[in-house]
Amino acid sequence: MLHCLGVIRYFGISDVGCSRNSNEDAFALEPELGLFMVADGMGGAQAGELASSIAVDTVVSCVREALPARTVENLVAAIRAANTAILQQASENADFQGMGTTVVSVLLNPPAAYVGSVGDSRLYLARGGKLGRITSDQTWVNDVGRSLGLSEEQIRTHPFRNVLTMAVGARERIEVRSHELSLEPGDLLLLCSDGLHGVVDEVGLTETLRSPNSLAQKASTLIRLARRRGGPDNITAVLVQVETGDG
Predict the structure, then answer these.
(1) Cβ(24)–Cβ(40) under 8 Å?
(2) For 140-176, how does the pLDDT look when each residue is reduced to its tens digit (9 = 90+)?
(3) Per residue in 168-197, pLDDT tens?
(4) How far apart are CA 50 and CA 73, in angstroms?
(5) Interval 77-89: pLDDT, tens
(6) Does residue 69 surpass a pLDDT of 50?
(7) What does the pLDDT look like over 86-123, one tens digit per residue?
(8) Which one of 177, 186, 196, 244 counts the least CB within 10 Å of its CB?
(9) How many Å apart are CA 41 and CA 21, to the nearest integer?
C-alpha cells in the first residue's frame, strides 16, 4: 500500500485501564481498505461496548462496499450510517437507549488521508519530531468554553471537559467533522480515545512517538503512561506510519 510513499506499518492496542470493569473502546485495522479507526462507547450495562462495536463494523462494511472509491464523502457517509445503525438498535431494546460512541477514523487514498471524527477521540500527526492535533473535540469546554474565554489550562481541568456535545448514535442528525491530509514519508498518525489523551499530555505523547522504538513498543508505552497516571478510563491507541523505503 502507498507505493508512492513507501509502505504502511500499523499497530493497535486497547486496555481496560485501572478503574473500569469492562472495555467500551473498539478499534479497526483494515489496511486492505486503507481504513483505521477508534471508537469510544458510552451507555449503561453493555450498551457502550455495543455502540462502539456497531460503529466499527458499520464503517468497515460501508467503506468496503464503496470500493474502489476512497473519498472523504464515503467516510462521512459511513459514519452517518453507523449513527443510523446505533439508533435503530437502541429503538429495538430499551436497555440500549441513550447509548452512543465517539469515532475517529482515517481512510488512506495515497498520498491523501481522509479524516472523519465525532466526539472527543483524537487524531494526531507526528512529523519531523513535532506533534500536531488534527481533530477538534466536540465537547462542552471546546465548543462553548473557548467562546467564554476559558484558558487552555482551564479547558484541560474543567469538570465539563468530558461532556460531549456530539456522539454517534446520540441523535438523528450528527455533525461529522472531516479533514484531508497530504501524507509525507515518515509521517506517524496516532488515533486514540480520551483514556489516553485525557491523562497523557502532548509532551509525553511527542516523546513516545519520536522514540526509535517499534510501533508496538510505542503503543505499549502510551498505555503504560496512561495507567501510571491512574488509567481512569479505557485506553486505546492505533498507530499508522508511512515508511520511506520498500519495507
Answers:
(1) yes
(2) 666 665 665 666 666 666 565 667 888 999 899 999 9
(3) 998 999 999 999 999 999 999 999 999 999
(4) 25
(5) 999 999 999 999 9
(6) yes
(7) 999 999 988 888 899 999 999 999 899 999 999 999 99
(8) 244
(9) 14
Amino acid at 173: R
On whether the CB atoms of residues 185 and 245 are closer than 8 A, the answer is no
| Interatomic CA distance for residues 141 and 29, integer angstroms | 31
State how far the Cα of 246 lies from the Cα of 175, in Å rounded to an integer. Answer: 39
**Termini Cα distance of the chain:** 11
Alpha-carbon Rg of the chain, whole angstroms? Answer: 17
Q: How far apart are CA 179 and CA 10, in angstroms?
A: 21
**Residue 217 DSSP SS3:** helix
Quote the pTM value: 0.90
Contact indicator for 91, 54 with CB cutoff of 8 Å: no
Amino acid at 91: S
Q: Which of 97, 138, 101 is nearest to 23 (CA)?
A: 101
Give the whole-angstrom CA distance, residue 164 versus residue 209.
27
Q: Which three cell numbers stand for residue 89?
A: 438498535
DSSP 8-state class, residue 144? I
Helix (H) or strand (E) holding 179, with range, is strand 177-182
What CA–CA distance (Å, rounded) separates 40 from 232?
14
CATH architecture type of domain 8-130+167-242: 4-Layer Sandwich (3.60)
Q: How far apart are CA 92 and CA 196, in angstroms?
A: 33
3-state secondary structure of 62: helix
| Cβ within 8 Å of residue 185, ≥6 positions away | 5, 6, 242, 243, 244
